[in-house]
Amino acid sequence: MLRLFSRRNVMAAGVVFFALLPFFANPYVLFIGNLALMYILLSVGLNMLLGYAGQLAFAHAALFGVGAYTTGLLKLELGLHYGLALVAGVGLATVTGLAVALPALRLRGLYLALATVAFAQATLWVFTHWNSVTYGGAGFRVPPLDFEPFTSRPDIGVYVLTFVIVLVSVPLGWNMLRSRVGRAWVAIRESEVAAESLGIDITRYKSIAYVVSAMYAGAAGGLFAGMLGIVTPESFDLFQVIVHFCMVIVGGLGSLWGGVLGAVGLVGLQEVLRAFRHLQEIAFGGLILFTVLVIPGGAVSLLKRYVPGWKEPLRRTEHDE
Amino acid sequence: MKRSPFAAGTAAAVLAAAWMHAVPASAETGVTDDTIKIGALGVLTGPNAKFGDTIYNGVEAVYKEANATGGIHGRMIEYVREDDRCQASEAVGAVKKLIHQHEVFMIHGGACSNASLAAKPEIVAADVPWVITASTASSLTDPVHPRIFTTMLAGWMESYAQVQYAIDLGMERIAIVAQHDNWGRSRYDPLIEAFKLHGIEPVADEEIAPDPTDGTPQALRLQAAQADAVILILFPKAAAVILRDAYKIGYKPFLIGGSTVGDVGVFANNVGIPGAADKLHAVSTIGYTADDPAMAEWKAKVEAAFPNDTFNIYHMFGIASGQFVVEALKRAGRDLTRESVSQAMNDLSVETDPYAGPITCTPTDHQCHNNAAWFGLVDGVTKRVGVTAVTR
Amino acid sequence: MFAYLIASGISTGALYAMVAIGLVLVYRSTGHINFSHGELFMFGGFIAYTCFVILGMPYFVSLVVAVIGGFALGVLCDRTVYRPLIKAPALTMVLATVGFSFLIKGVARFFWGAREGGDYVAFPAAVDPSPIPVGGIMVFPQQLLVLGGAFFFVVVFTIFFRRTRWGKMMQATAENATAAYLSGIRVERVYTMTWGTGACIASAAAVLMAPLTLLSPDVGFNLLLRAFAATVLGGLGSMPGAIIGGFLVGIIESLAGGYIHTGLQEVSAFIIIIVVLVFRPAGLFGIRRLRET
Questions:
Q1: How far apart (Å, rounded) are the C-alpha atoms in residues A211 and C168?
Q2: What is the CATH number of domain C2-116+137-292?
Q3: What is the CATH number of domain B12-153+293-361?
Q4: Which of A104, A288, B47, C36 qualifies as a FRET site for B156, CA 20 to 30 Å off?
Q5: H, E, C per residue of B104-149
């Protein structure tokens, strides 16, 4: 009976749900759905770097921002087609990711954390201060998108685009994690020395982790710029990093599907938290603490334990079961 | 687990009842025979909540009074708030929720400018009237949109007024110290524009973090530039640090503050050094201080309605804006539609209790408030020292 | 101008050093960085505000209450965050302390956030607020108090580490926890003590700083970044390094702001962190430790 709720079925139901959403949802619900899909991308990318490769890097929100700024600015300044601008956004975010990776490869653990926190803050400072390019603290409006031959409603257009990208890139990521690359990441996470002695090229696989994760972040950023129609620096501050981390943690660190659940769950939760008013920070901090302390494997670890059909390879060994 | 037919039947009945109930008696969304639903969009939590939640408490105090005296043509105002956390991303969700989920008649609110700018296309698309309470970006109401009005001074107005004030005082060497976050930017850019219009250059242009521990480098540089007037684009935290450190190094220029330090007396108290704020004049959106006897009645009403609040200038923004909207709703009459209330506001002048001049909207100008009041310390007491009607 | 910049650099640097001491203390004995350290600092300030302004106690008493309160909060952090996760990887600990920091920030905002109509409260001067001449320049008596306070705490803690039983146990645990455990030291109690001590120095720093600025629930993060810069500059894990690093960060900020551009005052700390970690991860004084490992 419980097989009904196996991962495969739940994910299939999710795909059907998100595919049908534009047909019955009001614009508000559709927007929230779009936000959830975008966060899935972000969370999958972050999970690769954080959960699988074990790199404690805080640069993700900055890369997300680079994707959003690049996409938005190309659309605004050059009138580039949104699709092309998005590709360019992914490209620049990837290059930035690589640029972060090069020095970051020398750093481990807390040193890496500190350096990337500083990098995130410095990027934010550039977003607010480089007026001639980023329009400073006030940000800029992205010209309205046009999906004309397909639909007259831009919000549905962005939604469908996001949906398609998620539908392609999440399984791609899943395959990558089950390949040599994913196994190498987990080996590095568990012990760099052991990984090296197995003949794993640490520099190479760590760089791949940074680059792939930056690609996901860049794509999410470009979609974010498109769906909001405005790019402002405060969307990429450290609070956002924490939100992204929270998705991965609550869903399940080192579990791709956990990250997906976490993204959807947290977007839902944020909507519910609107009602909490002055207690939001408390609820948010409390949720992270509660998850880390009580269910360290995240929501997905509970599913793995109690619901058949949720097992996956490369799971973290420390906290599971 | 099978769902029993009984449960399904009940659910259907409840749904049907809910659906029947949801059909509005009036043709207009958000208006029924005895209620008008108005939505507020803005920051309700975190460090900026004063620009949203506190202001809406002021608005709601006015609405409560209107309701207590029989409502507006027999209808009670219902005021629902949605949090945008001062984030563009949250604002889009919040405004969609107000429009499509709560199905409000109009929107009365708007705090952080970036968030409001993100929400604007949604509001325009849904054709919902919108009265802005605190967002200062001029692009919200300029060019004029038939549904959008603001009762707040635009960011550029404060900046223009500051430069004009310095020149009127006969100051020749004018300098700037600003925080360059998004709030500061929205005032800094028009400030530079105003300098250009007057054909002068700031003698120094310094920057400070919004949350600094030290302002000595800034104070020293301003002193070295021999500025005789310094325009502050600062929140109280940074302003207090600058005032203290300027005083410390014995540098006493004329200080021209913005509305964030508009209650000069309260701010001087925060600075805590006798004499440090003596040469500070600050522009303000409102015409009175929070402890002015003219405000005593509202102070009592707000504090009765919201026992956790201490009455302050942000409530006063809300009260002024609330009085304007209530008057517009009255003018629109019993046949309330989005069109009729927009028409009413389109040509309306209302004297409010907290502002120094009337809130006046005209068909060509929906920036309905332009009376900046100036405050300074006179014998240790905050006094209004002038009113400027700002034009561009 | 130079004298003023150095003077203000030293007084802010003293604050950074005090915050950094707590950070390093915890890092040395547990190997973790407490990301909620900035919020512990902030909370100490608000405890003192409650005593000093709301309850009308004398400044010195408020300082003592805040130090004790800070200690209690540090212990709470140890019990709720560190102890249960003692074997968890660094990542989990970082996230847990980040979660804890949000929690206390939210609590602070709930109680004190909207008190005076803004998100900040004014902390009245503890001593005469008018500046006095010292060596040809004017300084606030409070700045001297900050400097004196920092000096006092550094001396007290040096004595504590060198001379007292608890201090020696903390040193031993930091060097080698297993060996310390085997020689009969109750390592867990030492950890509790460490978290508490770190937080109480941060509280003291907040109480000293508060009269110079306004106090808000958001001050913690900025101070934490400065303290990061100080510890990184001094070599992560070195106590004298953190103190010197704190003063250096303060002075660099002040000089860069005064002589180059005031915008640099805000970003100096990030630049220091990135440059040091990329080019000299062991920090300025980390040569010895690097050779050891």
A1: 47
A2: 1.10.3470
A3: 3.40.50.2300
A4: B47
A5: CCEEECCCCHHHHHHHHHHHHHHCCCEEECCCCCHHHCCCCCCCEE
- Nearest residue, CB atoms, B92 vs list A136, A228, A281: A228
**Count of C-beta atoms within a 10 Å radius of residue B274:** 12
**Interatomic CA distance for residues B150 and A289, integer angstroms:** 42
Contact A118 C269 (CB under 8 A): yes
Stretch B378-391: mean pLDDT: 86
A109 class by beta-carbon count within 10 Å (0-12 exposed, 13-18 middle, 19+ buried)? middle
Chain C partners of B216 at a C-beta cutoff of 8 Å? Answer: 4-5, 7-8, 254, 258
Question: Cβ–Cβ of A114/C263 closer than 8 Å?
Answer: no
**Scanning every residue of chain C, which has its alpha carbon at the shortest distance from the alpha carbon of B311?**
C117
pLDDT of the residue at A2: 58
DSSP state of C88: S
Retrieve residue A127's tokens: 């977003």
For residue B358, the surrounding DSSP H or E stretch is none
- Measure the CA dihedral C104/C107/C108/C110, to 10°: 160
* Angle in degrees, CA A243, A246, A249, rounded to 5: 160
- Whether chain C has a CB inside 8 Å of the CB on A143: the answer is no
Q: What percent of chain B has pLDDT over 70?
A: 93
Question: Looking up tokens 């709030």, which residue turns up?
Answer: B183
Give B381 to chain A, closest Cα distance, Å: 34
Listed by number, the residues of chain C in 151-210 with a beta carbon closer than 8 Å to a beta carbon of chain A are none
Three-state DSSP state, B77: strand
Alpha-carbon distance of A176 to A313, in angstroms, equals 12
Half-sphere CA count of A300, side-chain side, radius 13 A: 29
- Domain A2-306 fold is ABC transporter involved in vitamin B12 uptake, BtuC (1.10.3470)
Kindly state the helix (H) or strand (E) to which residue A30 belongs, with its residue range: helix A27-47
User: Is the Cβ–Cβ distance between B36 and B72 less than 8 Å?
Assistant: yes
Tokens 């975190």, residue?
B46
- pLDDT tens digits for B61-83? 999 999 999 999 999 999 999 98
- Using the beta-carbon criterion (under 8 Å), do C89 and A287 form an inter-chain contact? no
Distance CA C243, CA C24 (A): 10
Task: Identify the pLDDT of residue C118.
Answer: 62
The CATH superfamily of B156-284+373-389 is Response regulator (3.40.50.2300)
Summarize pLDDT for C171-230 with one digit per residue, the tens. Answer: 888 888 888 888 888 888 888 988 998 999 999 999 988 888 888 888 888 899 999 999
Beta strand pairing call for B348-350 and B130-132: unpaired
Q: What is the residue extent of each domain of chain A?
A: 2-306
Residues A56-74, mean pLDDT to the nearest whole number: 92
Higher pLDDT, B381 or A225: A225
Using CB atoms and an 8 Å cut-off, which of residues 23-52 of chain A contact chain B?
Answer: 26-29, 31-32, 35
CA A132, A136, A137: angle at the middle one, nearest 5? 175
pLDDT of residue A277: 60
Residue B129 has pLDDT above 90, yes or no: yes
| Positions of chain C with pLDDT under 70 | 114-118, 286-293
Identity of residue C45? G
pLDDT of residue A314: 55
Q: What is the DSSP string of C194-242?
A: HHHHHHHHHHHHHHHHGGGSEE-TTHHHHHHHHHHHHHHHH-TT-HHHH
Q: Where are the domains of chain B?
A: 12-153+293-361, 156-284+373-389
Q: Tell the residue number behind the tokens 């503890």, with chain if given.
A: C126
How near does any CA of chain A get to the CA of B154, in Å? Answer: 14
Q: How much is the pLDDT for A41?
A: 94
Q: Kindly state whether C176 is in contact with chain B, defined as any CB-CB distance less than 8 angstroms.
A: no
